[in-house]
Amino acid sequence: MTDLKLAVLSSNLLESSKTNILKLLDSSLSQVYVESIRELVADGAWTELENRFFRTLAFGTGGLRGRTIGRVVTKAELGSPTPEGRPQAPCTGTNAMNDYNISRATQGLIAYLKEFFIREQRPGKPKIAIAYDTRHFSREFAELAAKIAVDLGCDACLFDAPRSTPELSFALRQTGSQAGIAITASHNPSHDNGYKCYFESGAQVLEPQAGGIISKVNEISTEIYTPVDPSARGTLYRLGPEMDAAYMDRLETVMLDPEMVRKQNNLHIIFTPIHGTGGTIIKPMLKRLGFKCDTVPEQDLMDGRFPTVKSPNPENAEALAKAVELAKKTGADLVLATDPDADRMGIAARNVSGEIQLFSGNQIGSLIAYYRIKTLIKQGVITKGNIDRCVLIKTFVTTDLQKAIAKKCGLRCVETLTGFKYIGAKLDQYEKALPESVRANYRTLTEAETRRLRLEYSTYYVFGGEESYGYSAHDFVRDKDANASCVMIAEVAAYARSRGLTLGGLMDEIYSEFGFYLEKNSFLIFEGAEGADKIRRLAESYAAHPPTTLNGIAVSGVENFGTEVIYDIEGDRIPSEPMLMISLTGGERVAIRPSGTEPKIKFYLFAQQEPATGEHWTPEQLAMIKEKVGSALESLWRSVQSDAEKRIA
């Protein structure tokens, strides 16, 4: 205690950090916490203590995310390390993913669920579905959450091995659970983990549930709890192969033209789960549908270290490098990669020259949207009589090429904030618009039956996605789904081949018809306590004093999603979020938003050029336009960087 006081007086430690250290010691029975803090204090590791304790990890609308292995690993945490070198105990700290924060989050969720049951006059016990990925401590955190749920009077449906986040969403709906927990940090580095919270529709929590859960979690300051009477405790159910089989049966219905795919059975796919959960479903699913699928052997192993990559993020070229190398060696047509919890998918495929190239999330989504809309119209599923009930959903920071495709084909395009929970909320809204007589057994109906009902009575969701490599086109999962995405893009690749095209060639056809749309996404990283303050100050600077010119081009408009009242085209109000959309007189746009899950402030840049009405560009014309728009976008990015540097100087 004396050392902590002296550290505060000498400005080596924030007062809030000292307070949080004492709070943790008072609210846990863990000797590891005591020994770790003692060691860090003795070593004068004040920066490490600051990063671990400057705040209590906040439970937000997306749950929790933070380090589960510290930058400095104490002897108490290390213990006898596992064969993979993982410490025996997670990172000690109020600002870390550990038992303390898992317990607080789960206790708060259960407290909210019990009040929800009383308010809604629901019979029986609340039920929670729980899944976890391959990250460090994911299994232990999931088992702890399940134990707390059962001890406090809830039933828990826990997967018996690592499973994807989209399968959790599916299982939540299948089991009739009222909430779900996914232990994952998605595509973050290996030292992180997280806790994503879902509600009974199968989507991540939104208001009013989010605010209610956050309030309950914030009321809890200890990981210690008192179990209910044994007669009132819940039951633990294990989920396994039977849920996989049900999920795969539904995934098969995502394919639109199985006969066409069978005719292209020599399409060769290289798939990598990047040491995550994707291999459980995707490998057998692609083979079941008739694709030739090989995996990257050294990455087809579940390993929370993600030892063959710098980061398990399918957005990054480095994460796909081994798969691309194998594709070049074997002559494969398509590379698919998924992140550890298999909700995001990245690809590489042949371009018009036959070379393997990476595709952006915007391009992948546009390819799938184009194919599905055109095919459903050709098959007579979408008709002149029902097309006004068909919708494509994208985020504000996703390419406007998808909006152009939807508009030209006659569908409406709804735009949401970043986060698939907003697309999930729309799907829940469309389900609730169905007649009450069919809603009672909606989840037991086939995909064909639910599609017919949505086309007749409500809104049919044709496709949706976000630029950050997340997509879906189905209603039985209410989150982005890399398992389904692999099926969809493989079908698009088969379609391109049936027309004598590569995926790159099909992409150029789309550009020639709808216009060339180019985007650039980048970010600035600021870690730790000091970094969090920089991100806050930079976001405030943009909101208070947005630029009047960028790249020598006048700003024509600024939308502040944090302060303005904005509605989507269906008349629903867009929730407030600290994001600025800056439009320039030349048609370019720049969006700026702090990340909700990573220590970053993100920048999204947009530029485009469209052909004259009724005109299609030739390959030569398209090549010149690509170069022109690309140069303009790079120049705009240099201007944005310069502006940002001045603001943080």
Task: Tell me what the structure shows.
- The protein is of the alpha/beta class and 649 residues long.
- The protein folds into three domains: 2-239, Alpha-D-Glucose-1,6-Bisphosphate, subunit A, domain 3 (Alpha-D-Glucose-1,6-Bisphosphate, Chain A, domain 3); 247-513, Alpha-D-Glucose-1,6-Bisphosphate, subunit A, domain 3 (Alpha-D-Glucose-1,6-Bisphosphate, Chain A, domain 3, 3-Layer(aba) Sandwich), CATH 3.40.120.10; 515-648, TATA-Binding Protein (2-Layer Sandwich).
- The chain has 22 helices and 21 strands.
- The protein has a six-stranded mixed beta sheet, sandwiched between helices. A six-stranded antiparallel beta sheet has the order 16-21-20-19-18-17. It has a five-stranded mixed beta sheet with strand order 8-7-9-10-11, sandwiched between helices.
- The chain is globular, with a radius of gyration of 25 Å.
- The two termini are 37 Å apart.
- The mean pLDDT is 93.
